[in-house]
Amino acid sequence: MSSGSNWPIRELMTGDLVTLRAADTVGRARQILGDTGLHALPIIDDGRTVGIVTLADCEHHAEYEHLGDLSIEVPITIDVEATAGEAAIVMRSEHIHHLLVSEGERGEVVGILSSLDLLFPLTR
User: Fold this and answer.
1) Model confidence over 2-25: pLDDT tens digits?
2) Third-level CATH fold of 4-122
3) Whole-number CA gyration radius for the chain
4) Could you tell me which residues come within 8 angstroms of residue 3 by beta carbon, excluding any fewer than 6 positions away?
5) b/e string for 44-83 if b means 16 or more Cβ within 10 A?
6) 8 Å CB contact between 99 and 77
7) Distance from C-alpha of 109 to C-alpha of 106, rounded to nearest angstrom
8) Which is nearest to 110 in space by CA: 42, 11, 17, 7?
9) What is the pTM of this model?
């Protein structure tokens, strides 16, 4: 077992990702986020990560029909072998609350990590 900032994010992330496509509606994203209790989902088209949508995006941009209509930047990723401390540094420096977790040379998205997930090692 690791402690604190050395905790592997592999053990903290949410795997078994639910993904969306840019053609999916904002309403569909809101529904899936509500049903799953998640706060962010990756947008993947043709095997390529094109963005991330959060519950806040859905609430603040309800006027848009499709996720592709939102101005969503390609999300910042972190390698699955990184530690909680490394993830916290990235989140803090980028002012974000979610990181997509990637693995391998191709950077396949294998999970998502939230700032809330980083609290787990501190509350065990």
Assistant:
1) 456 889 999 999 998 899 999 999
2) CBS-domain (3.10.580)
3) 14
4) 121
5) beeeebbbbbbeebbeeeeeeeebeebebeebebbebebb
6) yes
7) 9
8) 17
9) 0.86
